[in-house]
Amino acid sequence: MALNNVKETGVLIVGAGPTGLALACDLARRDVRALVVERATTLFPGSRGKGLQPRTLEVFDDLGIVDAVLAAGGPIPVGMVWRGGERQGEHRMFDTPEPTETAPYTTPRMLPQWRTQEILLARLRELGGDVAFGTEVTGLTQDADGVTAALSTGATLRAAYAVAADGGRSTLRRELGITMSGETVDPSPVLVADVRIPALDRDHWHMFPAAEDGGPYTAICPLAGTQHFQLTAQLPAGTAPDLSLQGVRDLVAARTHLAADDVTEVRWSSDFRPRAALADRFREGRVFLAGDAAHVHSPAGGQGLNTSVQDAYNLGWKLGAVLRHGAPEALLDTYEEERLPNAAQMLGLSTRIHRGEARRGEATRQLGIGYRGGSLAVDAREGLPESSEALRAGDRAPDGPCGEGTLFDAFRGPHWTLLAIGTDTELPTLDSELVHTHAIPAYEPYGKGLFLVRPDGYVGWAGADARDGLTAYLARCGALRTS
Q1: What is the CATH number that goes with domain 378-476?
Q2: Strand partners, 443
Q3: Rounded distance, CA 415 to CA 92, Å?
Q4: Are 18 and 117 in contact (CB under 8 A)?
Q5: Angle, CA of 21, 104 and 115, to the nearest 5°
Q6: Could you count the other beta carbons within 10 Å of the beta carbon of residue 373?
């Protein structure tokens, strides 16, 4: 995509990783002009973020790519522990609950990050968007009306807002002067590589514990939909990883029963040092941080890519409401309000899992993430049960039956959804493009009443009657246009 003639856009997105691509898809379906610039000449080639949690699958369902994701990926393999070249038995890293009426996706799926990005890019192009590869932001200024970015192509781009989705070493974050606070999770570096090993079976996630407890670990995981494995190998502190083909071969031969020549290809390799760090703020004027630019973490628990995609999902509808529907600009303040605490919780969870202090389970599936107590969570009902499990404003809206389909079918798309559940209370006349209304019988996961579901699938407002503040809430969020 050439940039020579591009002079302005609604949103400039810096970085074509999962965060930037998901945000671009969400904005495109809202008819918000967005430009994604990526300094690399191609999509990221590695498997790095390979686990997709159930909540992210729900996001991908809404974005129209879940079928492609499920077809390309596969289940998380059962672990197989090896010692001395002998199989010691299977190891299950987490429980696998069955799908339910309220949650159609309950177990993580395996898909290498490069494939997830390919699917997102294909969807973006279907929606009329694209990525400017080989293009870097070399300078950025902002004023009361927008941002001005100098690009490495020589072009100057004007945008209403910009989003830094350029990874943990974000250039844009540093230019904004936003610092990150955190800790080293583990001083030992980790080598990660995508390798081909035809001699190894693809039915298990192969684990090779160190000869002594506390020593460096090695794991080789088959990557669904490919002929490759992801190799992860912890190295002694102070070691400089050898990322070459021969270096990877020698490591595999030293750590496993496999011979060096059994590694026939290294498709991609890298190294990292597990660290947990959180940006001090997620916004500076008209520029937002999202994904790894806002939070870096240990990969344990498979939370990072998922949290990053959900950053984009939270920010996308808010930018759309401000730019397309006249919502107050203050709505954008709720992005940091909602996402920064969730990112902090994710960092803590990932660190505890890395250190063996917590197990992968309900929390890592991310279906319990919500925004209770936030300024966009308004619950006007009285006499609610004291149980914390009862649905409240700010919670994820459960799936369930709705007419001939499901509630998720009703939610799918960039609109709001007003549910009248088990009630015949009078409803206001609303713009049917912005707010879809559905009346269904009483449904236990919700109870009875009116529930306004945000475009990102969370209950924003709940009440017994529309007079409990429904229209004021919609006006605040740019969804009140009356027909």
Answers
A1: 3.40.30.120
A2: 447
A3: 40
A4: yes
A5: 30
A6: 10
> For residue 24, which phi and psi values (nearest 5 degrees)?
-60, -40
Q: For residue 416, what are the β-bridge partners?
A: 435
What global pTM score does this model have? 0.94
Tell me if residue 81 falls in helix, strand or coil.
strand
CATH number of 74-108+187-273: 3.30.70.2450
In this predicted structure, the answer to whether residue 171 has a pLDDT above a threshold of 60 is: yes
Closest to 396 measured CA to CA, from 270, 272, 310, 309 = 310
pLDDT (tens digit per residue) in 118-131: 999 999 999 999 99
pLDDT of residue 298: 73
- Which 8-state DSSP code applies to residue 432? T
Cβ-proximal residues to 45 (8 Å cutoff; 6+ apart), any chain: 114, 267, 268
Average pLDDT of the residues of the chain: 92
What helix, strand, coil percent values describe the chain, rounded to 5? 25, 30, 45
> Residue 361 above 70 pLDDT?
no
pLDDT tens-digit readout, 376-413: 999 999 888 776 678 999 999 999 999 999 999 999 99
Report the pLDDT value the prediction gives residue 120, as an integer from 0 to 100.
98
Q: Which of 198-212, 344-358, 468-482 has the lowest mean pLDDT?
A: 344-358
Nearest C-alpha neighbor of 293 from the set 413, 382, 405, 173 = 173
The topology (CATH level 3) of 8-73+111-181+276-365 is: FAD/NAD(P)-binding domain (3.50.50)
pLDDT of residue 382: 86
Nearest CA-CA partner of 68 in 11, 115, 12: 115
Q: Tokens 């987490």 belong to which residue?
A: 94
Note whether 468 and 448 are within 8 A (CB): no
Written as one letter, the residue type at 274 is: P
CA distances from 445 to 149, 164, 390, 452 (A): 47, 37, 8, 15
| pLDDT computed for residue 6 by the predictor | 46
What's residue 239's pLDDT? 87
Supply the pLDDT for residue 162.
98
CA nearest neighbour of 317 among 89, 99, 28, 68: 28
Alpha helices in 64-112 (DSSP H): 66-72
Q: Which residue has the tokens 């004291």?
A: 386
445 closest CA partner among 421, 423, 468: 421
C-alpha span between 337 and 126 (Å, rounded):
32
Q: What is the distance of C-alpha 212 from the center of its chain?
A: 36
Residue spans per domain, the chain: 8-73+111-181+276-365, 74-108+187-273, 378-476
User: pLDDT digit string (tens) for 242-300?
Assistant: 999 999 999 999 999 999 999 999 999 999 888 889 999 999 999 999 999 999 887 76
Residues near 319 by beta carbon (within 8 Å), at least 6 away in sequence: 10, 11, 27, 32, 161, 332
